[in-house]
Write a structure and sequence with these properties.
- This protein is an all-alpha fold.
- It has a domain of about 30 residues.
- The protein contains one helix and no strands.
């Protein structure tokens, strides 16, 4: 086999794995951000509900 062909194949494999791990990291970070947003939103809603209950 040609060494140049082997090195090109290895390069494609490395870029492919790099892309997969990049997408996994982006998914992880976006999920963490959505959870933080959800917790913050839920906390604000609970505080509003508590204020409304206190006024009754």
């Amino acid at each position: 086999m040609d060494m140049q062909l082997m090195s090109k194949g290895l390069e494609v494999a490395v870029f492919g794995l790099g892309g997969v791990f990049t997408v996994l990291i982006m998914f992880y970070l976006s999920t963490k951000a959505m959870l933080q947003f959800s917790k913050r939103s839920n906390r604000k809603k609970l505080e509003e509900d508590n204020r409304k209950d206190a006024l009754k």
